[in-house]
Model the fold of this input.
Amino acid sequence: MTGLVKNPIKLIEKLSIPYKTLDPFLFCVYHKDLYPPGNEQMEPPRRGNGSDFDPNQDYRMYHGRRIPGFPQHPHRGFETITGVMEGVIDHSDSKGGAGRFGNGDLQWMTAGRGIVHGENFPLVNQDKPNVNRFFQIWLNLPAKSKMVEPSYVMHWGEKIPVHVEDDGKARVTIWAGELFGKKALPPTKDSWAADPAHHVGVFFIQLQPGGSFTFPASSSATLNRTFYVSEGPLVQLAVSGTEVKDIQNNHCVQVDPLQPLVFKNPSESGQPVELLLLQGEPINEPIAKYGPFVMNTHAEIQEAFDEYRRTEFGGWPWDADAVVFPREKGRFAIVNKKEIRP
Done:
């Protein structure tokens, strides 16, 4: 046959933590914690040690001492995209922003010139387990945008566009980008994803047993496209001109963006399959990073540390390093000093 791409599958490899990503993405991690019922203070029965990432445990405290999570910490020079499938997250930041989101919601935060924020996971259920599953993705900013004013938007799950196949066995949540004429909710204004020419896409794909879905080809040969199998035993992948391949759980695949991808869940055990697909045009700029700061040069990294020590990026306006809200508060967001709800 003629006209076939020789290597439509560029790479298949086992996942590491965090996931390996391609420009314009910097970092991706899948959190899955099977927290037990919480006590009256929304705490688990096990206290953290301030750095608890034990992968052999059913759940992790991360840096939380009484409530799991990540107390206040700084960011500069990139964005965080946090999509929650199950559970809730309490957000607070140095600009006065705050919120509780989860169970289908997405938060998009541009750190820009510098912000301090915290993400904590209160165990709001006292009578049943508190399952917490979410992706956090770091999206880079170009040099011209690294020092913009910080901002964030909340996308409530009820408003996020979803594509469902006719048989109901395949569902794609569109966190960023466009699929079959359905456009994601707008990102922050300074995001690399705000320009449609950058073709940034973040798609959460769920396949029931027997379900299949064809992800369309892109018209851009320079696009970076990678997907990750996060749940389910395996997914079958067919790319134009190649045989079907079994992609095991905890593997990522880099593919030719010019070819459509056919995903199928062949499970005979009744297990669904979940995948995350990331794509975008590369920024193609030098990257210097250290911990929570991502700039273009090492000198800029040093400047970020110096400024954070001097100013704390405006200071921390909250009474606690690990801010959580009352159990009965429900989902909300404070954006630009205004409280919004779903």
In short: The chain has one helix and 26 strands. Residues 1-5 have pLDDT under 50 and may be disordered.
